[in-house]
Amino acid sequence: MKKVKNLKEKIVLTVGYLAIVLLLYFLGAECIFKKFLGVSCPGCGMTRAFLSALRFDFVTAFRYHFMFWSMPILYAYFLFDGKIFKRKKVDLAILIIIAVGFVINWLRLLF
Q1: I need a surface site. Which of 15, 28, 29, 72 has the fewest CB within 10 A?
Q2: Cα dihedral sign for 77, 49, 98, 30?
Q3: φ, ψ for residue 101, nearest 5 deg
Q4: What is the full per-residue pLDDT of the chain (111 aa) written as tens digits?
Q5: What's the burial of 111, exposed, middle or buried (CB within 10 Å: 0-12/13-18/19+)?
Q6: What letters, b where the CB count within 10 A reaches 16 and e where it falls short, cover 50-83?
């Protein structure tokens, strides 16, 4: 996959991605992972959680997917080519914490 360096390209990609996600959401599309494998994916509930957070309903957002808060952080990593802090170890530690949170949330959905 080509690495996106230009900020304008990243914003256009973001708008396109959000348009596709919202279109699929409003069309009632199901999670492909869940449909074919029968189990929730690590991101299941993220769209509903994020929409709840946009309505300031954080209790419901945490119920849907308690890692919804990590999306702005991950987006910042996308915008700044994986470097938010000056020290690589801090960036890595934050990404590991987020990854562990996603795994914990996924296990919660499975059991």
Answers
A1: 28
A2: negative
A3: -60, -40
A4: 456 668 888 889 999 998 998 898 889 888 888 888 888 888 888 888 988 999 999 999 999 999 999 999 999 998 888 888 889 999 999 999 999 999 999 998 877
A5: exposed
A6: bbbbeeeeeeebbebbbbbbbbeeeeeeeeeeee
